[in-house]
């Protein structure tokens, strides 16, 4: 068989269903092989969007996708999306061509071999993937692909990269079909039974335990076992910001989001717990209130897919490594063997509301111009249970952690690499992963301008999505920072021009709605939902929000402020004083 056909056959054997990327002259022979494959090609408008789509697809479909970028600038453009996959520990297979072997080192068109005065895309990819391999012999192509599959799907998951010369695709090689189980481990990786048994005993003896769930519980999906342990034994669950959506926020055992921009209730639950069982959490800066001393430590048990993050930022009392589903299933069985026990028989809903009372007050604010918390309240109240919200990076993304309530698997935001524009593009891959769910992308105006033309991709493949765009004509997070640190003297670097979104919608033949108050959000969102349900109609819903709205500042945020800006000017900032007053209402 030809090498291109062999690569496609190997990918098909792994169950890969979608390829995201852009074609290029250097690997047209690969697309010839892909043409008759069940793997569906989605042609994006910028290569970075391919990685974002693959990330949201992997989260929701629980399987990797193929990502494609042509030689030179095409592969370089992939990097932002690939970085998000790498940071979020999500698998995908990246394929990029290189100029023909007899042209390498001669400054060929779009050369990225690293020879001569060209850069090495292989070296670049090694920094953002689990493994990057250059095919040096076309006869070994099966070995290359299957070796990368082993790396991609073992231990901590992540993207892998195959670089192959354009003249190799038409080469002929031998191919013997094989199932994945014949060349790699396809089962759950071993957990440590003795450690799980000790963890179960320690948990069973605790009085006020808590489950703290992180991003790595997304893949493979551990939400089912987390829910089972929580509900069957009456244990509250707190999520890090990157894990939002893994647990139903309407559950009586939901304790909140632990994040610099999260819920007060989450901090209260963590500080009151006598035992914290961490599941797939890396204890990042935001998830620990800027590494707050004493927040975790002597009462923390850490369960993760590998040992790298065990005790890295906080000491632990016990730990276990292995597949999270297997670990949690073993933990559940061990707890059952120790005897029935319901740690908490009451609902935590009242405590959640009580501790977050300032948050609810913000969400009831009906003053105009419209404030973001009230906009999120209206959207939350109208979200169908069978929907997925794809959120973006920026002020609205962090505010969504606090103010947007979602059901299990009802939220997807790769808040690990913190790339702007990932949600507005990634929703296309997410919708393909969960076609039965309504796809709603919530993004800021700045993020939308980065990847908004992926609307063309959605329209090209008839993928219905509702884009809700928060518009305040600025890069919101940067604007907040300059107001705090430089007393609003750097406004010039934050302002952006937002074009007429109604005309953009019209150019794509999708609906457009403009919202300036709570009533118009309710009316327009309902209309957009109904047309989506009845006609698979996409829409842009523009929500105009107050550009002078006050962002909540927590005490630990001050440390962050001191590290990045001019604290002398910050002392003169009226915005900072207002933010601190708002903080005092939360009494964190």
Oligomer: single chain
CATH superfamily of the largest domain: Thiamin diphosphate (ThDP)-binding fold, Pyr/PP domains
The low-confidence parts are none
- What global shape is seen? globular
| Tally of individual helices | 24
Describe the biggest sheet?
6 strands, parallel
User: How many separate domains?
Assistant: 3
CATH class of the largest domain: Alpha Beta
Mean of pLDDT: 93
Report the CATH topology name of the largest domain.
Rossmann fold
Structural class: alpha/beta
Strands, count: 18
Give the name of the CATH architecture of the largest domain.
3-Layer(aba) Sandwich
Account of the protein in words:
The protein is an alpha/beta fold and 588 residues long. It has 3 domains: 3-182, Rossmann fold (3-Layer(aba) Sandwich), CATH 3.40.50; 193-350, Rossmann fold (3-Layer(aba) Sandwich); 356-586, Thiamin diphosphate (ThDP)-binding fold, Pyr/PP domains (Rossmann fold, 3-Layer(aba) Sandwich), CATH 3.40.50.970. Helix 3 runs parallel beside helix 5, helix 9 (223-233) runs parallel beside helix 11 (324-337) and helix 10 crosses helix 12 (349-355).
Q: How would you summarize the topology of this molecule?
A:
Layout: H1 3-13, E1 18-21, H2 28-35, E2 40-43, H3 47-61, E3 66-68, H4 73-77, H5 79-87, E4 92-98, H6 121-126, E5 131-134, H7 141-153, E6 159-165, H8 193-205, E7 209-213, H9 223-233, E8 237-240, E9 254-258, H10 264-272, E10 275-279, E11 300-304, E12 318-321, H11 324-337, H12 349-355, H13 357-363, H14 372-382, E13 387-391, H15 395-403, E14 411-412, H16 422-433, E15 438-444, H17 445-451, H18 455-460, E16 466-471, H19 476-486, H20 501-507, E17 511-515, H21 518-535, E18 539-544, H22 557-564, H23 567-570, H24 574-586
Parallel strand pairs: 1-2, 1-3, 3-4, 4-6, 5-6, 7-8, 7-10, 8-9, 10-11, 11-12, 13-14, 13-15, 15-16, 16-18, 17-18
Helix pairs in contact: 1-2, 1-7, 3-5, 3-16, 8-11, 9-11, 10-12, 14-15, 14-21
